[in-house]
């Protein structure tokens, strides 16, 4: 589906990974090393900063709003969170369309993965090692602790430090320069403190990976490959600028991995389906290059994940309107794995492109009986209803969806479209206002809701709802501005 200032306190706690495996008696629990950081920010304040910065990212970065990929990333991330120590906040995992290798975490349990990371992580365990490392940065409150440490060494204000740290997410070279300028003569101590954080995140991350059942050898393997590839590069990836990989870190991760008995992990089809989807739609390469990638990679891959490469080829064909060829690949894939949402999503697009939206609706209705309340199926179902001009049904489905998934812009976009089709201008304005609020465009969102209220019948429940939402948005705007 859907082919297609003053700075807040944040730090590019980039993915320098950690790793997985089963738990054994010789792996004792690690101590909680200074997680309090309460002298700087409370957990509630961290969550406020995280929400605010996420809204800024939605407005300024190419966030990938792909239901299938979002579900995969969220499932993987929460599998790890379920086995992490010191979890004090909810977690949100999302992807940014960027070919650079990078990942970062910030306040409130937000973890971002660049799409380029999937092109370099050769297994799900390697990707999980990145995510587990980032989770550890959040649970150990490294951002708050780093700010606290800098504030003790420097006359700089927390606001100045926050601005420098935020830059490190968006532009690592500029961010590091700003940190150096802000902390004056304390650059070396800042680097040492960051390295300390990295090693701590590695230690906690490998424990999380082990408990989650991943391959612990994935971390040193990924570390080593990345270090070798960029050892002499004039422009290393952003992740290595903010989180360098000195030899002692690689050695330490290797030694820790060797402390776990060998644990064979079968290749994950879902990971390779996600990877193929990224190559086909988000890697910024043409269809020929994508097909070449599928052919080359398949030759080295285990037979159990070969369907992922067929799926990638089918997406390329589908996106180039070669519908019959795409159908010839997708039908056998779905027949062999009838509940696979990667295949159901692709076939929904295919049927709609073939003007067979009724067939898509039947397939989705059947799938939802087996897997009710699934976001991928629900958003495809609503989109298909719109294509069938069943706008009232679509609106009812989308009202439920946006209630359950208020931060998913896909739901609001579709609700806006369906409202326009039936001439409901005030509901269209309200849906668009929610998209603007998700991007921290508070004044425009309030303006749209005000216009919606003026269009609604005087004294109606609709008008009361719009007015109540205006009050909420004004409070959120004031809180947001107070953080700056």
TrEMBL record:
Example of a GO MF term: metalloendopeptidase activity
Free-text remark on how the cofactor is bound: Binds 1 zinc ion per subunit.
Leading EC class: hydrolase
Residues holding Zn(2+): 133, 137, 198
The entry's keywords: Hydrolase, Metal-binding, Metalloprotease, Periplasm, Protease, Signal, Zinc
Localization annotation: Periplasm
Matches recorded under Pfam families: Peptidase_M48, TPR_19
InterPro entries associated with the record: Mito/Outer_Membr_Metalloprot, Peptidase_M48, Protease_BepA, TPR-like_helical_dom_sf
UniProt cross-references to Gene3D superfamilies, sorted A to Z: Metalloproteases ('zincins'), catalytic domain, Tetratricopeptide repeat domain
Enzyme Commission (EC) number: 3.4.-.-
GO cellular component, one term: periplasmic space
Domain Peptidase M48: 70-254
Active site residues per record: 134, 202
GO biological process, one term: proteolysis involved in protein catabolic process
Cofactor: Zn(2+)
Function recorded in the entry: Functions as both a chaperone and a metalloprotease. Maintains the integrity of the outer membrane by promoting either the assembly or the elimination of outer membrane proteins, depending on their folding state.
Name of the featured protein: Putative beta-barrel assembly-enhancing protease
Organism expressing this protein natively: Vibrio sinensis
